[in-house]
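Supplementary Text 2. Reproducibility record for the structural model of the 197-residue chain.

All settings were left at their defaults, and a single model was retained for analysis rather than an ensemble. We include the record here because the model underlies the residue-level annotations in Supplementary Table 4.
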Amino acid sequence: MPAKELGPRATQMIARILAATKSIFLSRGYAGTTIDEITRVAGVSRGSFYTYFPTKRDALLALGADSIRAGRTAVERLADLPDDWTVTDLEGFVESYFVMLEEHGSFAFAWTQAAHEDNEIREAGMKRHLHLCGEMGLAVESLRGEPLDDPTAYGLVLFSMLERAWVYCRLYEGTIDPASVRRSIAQVMAADLTPTS
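Retained model, structure tokens:
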């Protein structure tokens, strides 16, 4: 049975609910977010929320689908760097990744918390995330010009560094320069991307 197409009003309602969910996930995490708080921030009724999302978990999973697509786009940006890449190219990649996290970082934060409590969320998210980590590792391998021992593990480390640094830049806002952090990440990446042979 084909899915029903949503009208403009329904699409706007879903967007409001998901925007509110993202905002609250970022400040309170998954466990600290309630449907009442989501509906208050979105300016919608509980009934409207339940029309589109049977549970808070369903809202998280909807955000996850968007986040994975954005992650793939980020990996493609890294893979598209020229063979004669520079530290400036890598810094541009890191900057674009931070911009992407402004939109999707709340999902990563909430999913990490939810995965500890919900095995189904952990299993579904882990498979997609590790696949994306593998793609990131292969992109790095291509730029490096020599194979990595484990592209998935490398991708996981790189994602972790980027996401954690972004979280700390937000947490320490006003005390640390995000541009300096991005430049430092690019320098670390450049040192590691230089072939050892």
